[in-house]
Amino acid sequence: MSSSASSLWSRYRSIPIVYRIGVAFVLGSLAGLIGGEPLTALQPIGDLFVRLLKMIIVPIVFFTLLMGARRLTPSTLGRIGGVTVLCYIVTTAIAIVIGLAVGNLVDPGVGLDVVSTDVQTKQAPNIGEVLLGIVPTNPLGAMAEGDILPVIFFTLVFGIALALLQEEFDADTAVHRGVETIFDVVEAGAEAMFKIVWGVMEFGIIGVFALMAATFGTAGVDAIVPYAKLIGALALAVGIHIGLTYLLVIQRGVLGESPIAFLRGAREAMVTALSIRSSSGTLPVTMSNADENFGIDEEIYSFSLPLGATINMDGTAMYQGVAAIFAANLVGQALTLGEQFTVVVTALLASIGTAGVPGSGLIMLTLVLTQLGLPLEVVGMVAGVDPLLDRLRTMNNVTGDLAVTTLVAHVYNGIDRTASVWSGSSEPAGTPQDD
C-alpha cells in the first residue's frame, strides 16, 4: 500500500465507527429514495452483514456468560436477576403510557380509511409455554437454532456448576485445574469474539448502506408520506422515553451521571439497532459497549443484556399505544381511560408472551386490537411501513437494555467509572480506531 493510500486509510480509521455507520445510514437512505427499485439489488450485501452479526450471537453469549458465571453464586444471580427483570417490566410499562400519551397528542390515523387486507400472523405462545421453553431439551440444538433464552439458562447452569466445583475441590486436584483451564479458554474465546465484533462492524459500514438503500428502494417515498404522522408519533414517543426514562431518571437521577456520556457509550449499539432491526443481532455490539465503553462488570452485563435482548420490548410495547390510537381514529372511535388502561395491561403481558417470536410487534398489535374490539385490518395497513417503525422500536429496546444494565450495575457497585465514558474522555475507550 502506498504512503498516500496508507495515510488516507489512517484518517478514515481515525473517524469513530459510529459516525461512519451514521453517514452510511443517511447516504443509503437517500440513494434508495433517488435510485428506487434497482438499488434493491444491494439487499444481499445487507443480508450478509446481518448474517455475520447473527453468526456471533450464540458464541458471544456463551463465552461472556460463562465468564460472568465464574464470579456468580446462585444467591448473587437471584438478586441480580430479580432486579433486572423488575426494571425491564417497569420501563416497559412506562413506555406504553408514553406511547398512549403521544398517540392522544398527535392523533395519527385521522383522515385515513380502513383498507381490507389479509395478514397472517403467528399465534403468540401462552406464558406457560414461554416458561417451559426456557429449559432446553437439547442445549446444542438451542445453540444451533439461536434460541437465546434456553442458551442463557443452560450456560448459567453449566457455569455455576463449574464455579461450585472450583470451590469444592482443592487447587492441586485435577478437577480444580480442569475447571481453571475451561475458564481460561472461555476468557480467551470471549476476547476473540470481541475482535470479531470489531471486524464485523467495519464491514457494517457497507452493510448498513446496502440495507438502507434496499429498504427505501423498495418502499419509496410514496409508502412513507401517508403514514408520516404515525412514524412521527412513534419517533416522538421514542425520543421522550429515551430522554426522560433512560437519560434523566436513570442516568442523571439515579446514577448521577451525564446523559451525554451514556449516549456516547451507547451510540454504536443504537445505530446498529436502527440499521438492522434486531435486538439479538445487535447483542454483540451492545455487550462490547457495556464492557469497553461503560466499564460494567462482566457478571452483570453478560446476564442482563442477553436477557434484555430477548424479553425487553419497551419500543415494541410503546408502539402498541400509538397504534391503538391510530386504529381507533381510523374508525372514528375515541378510547376511554379504561380502554387505554387495557392497552397498558395487554401490551405489558403480551410483551412477555411474544418476546421470542418473529414479527412480535405485529402479533402484539393483533392481541391489543382484538382486546379493544378494533379492526384487525389495521395490522395489514401498517405492515408495509413496519420495517421503518421497527427500526425505531429496536433502537429503543437496545437503548433500554443498556440503561437498565447500567442501573443494575450501579445498584451492585459493578461499574468502573475510571476507565470508561464516565471518566469524561472525549471518546469511549473501546472504539475500533483505538485497536
From TrEMBL:
PROSITE patterns documented for this protein: NA_DICARBOXYL_SYMP_1 (PS00713)
Keyword annotations of the record: Cell membrane, Membrane, Symport, Transmembrane, Transmembrane helix, Transport
Transmembrane region(s): 17-36, 48-68, 80-102, 148-165, 203-224, 230-249
SUPFAM superfamilies the record matches: Proton glutamate symport protein (SSF118215)
GO MF annotations, alphabetized: symporter activity
Membrane topology: Multi-pass membrane protein
Any GO BP annotation: carboxylic acid transport
Subcellular localization, as worded in the UniProt entry: Cell membrane
Record-level GO cellular component terms: plasma membrane
Pfam families recorded: SDF
Keyword Cell membrane in annotation: yes
Gene3D superfamilies per record: Sodium:dicarboxylate symporter (1.10.3860.10)
Major localisation: membrane
Designated name of the protein: Dicarboxylate/amino acid:cation symporter
Phylogenetic placement of the source organism: Archaea, Methanobacteriati, Methanobacteriota, Stenosarchaea group, Halobacteria
